[in-house]
Write a structure and sequence with these properties.
By secondary structure, the protein is mostly helical. It has twelve helices and no strands. The structure holds iron/sulfur cluster.
Amino acid sequence: MTISELMFTNEIAQAQYADPSATRETVNQGLDHIWQVMRDCIDRGVQQGGVLPGGLNIKRRAKGMYDAIHDKQAHGLPTDSNDWVNLFAMAVNEENAAGGRVVTAPTNGAAGVIPAVLAYYDKFVSPNNPDGIRTFMATSAAIGSLYKTNASISAAEVGCQGEIGVACSMAAAGLAAAMGASNQQIENAAEIGMEHNLGLTCDPIDGLVQVPCIERNTMGAVKAINATRLAMGGDGQHHVSLDSVIKTMHETGLDMMSKYKETSQGGLATNVIPINVVAC
Ligand code: SF4
């Protein structure tokens, strides 16, 4: 079975507990709804200007980025897929910072990575189709479950590697699956996605999920796409297993001093503006 088929089989069985007549279509409808909420979030995020709440006076940037891309298009100039991916992730996490509606995937602070990579698939990968979106989501969910079960997706426990790092790993696997990768290549993509986020601390300035969090989602999304490209350039053979990198992330997180784990008392948070408590 593919990883997504395993997930679909499980999801259908779970759905049938609640409703014996549930089918694959029931699960598809749920996934389509989640994707629609993600898209709505991006659409709203690119339209909002002004300053984010909280007191840091951070200017929202997604609208300006969107206008700049449109300006280029209006003048017949090419646009770069990276600019779009940055825009998608920025839009979602500015919405999160402003108290807008996001899909927790896997956390709110890291909610921009998966929608940005899904939107990249939707806009730039050809061929693509709704089943590809569903395959992406089911595969991402499988990978996320491994982190949640065997390590942690809480920055308070393991730092930002457990949030942006996990989101990156999930998105890399999902994109690879949607693009037709083998299970081995998918595992490799997920492993690369985390391997290059190991050690990432959680140090939000003034306890707000804004700096570095919003930009960090753009970095996670771009990194996920590159992880997929690296994995799909190979045959799935790789030296570090996903299980090993999950174990390493967990151990690294446990060894991390607590001030680098969502307390906002270390790193950027103390070197720019001090202290508060975070709710990422
Ligand atoms: S609050 Fe911490 S874990 Fe959440 S995105 Fe910001 S730095 Fe990462």
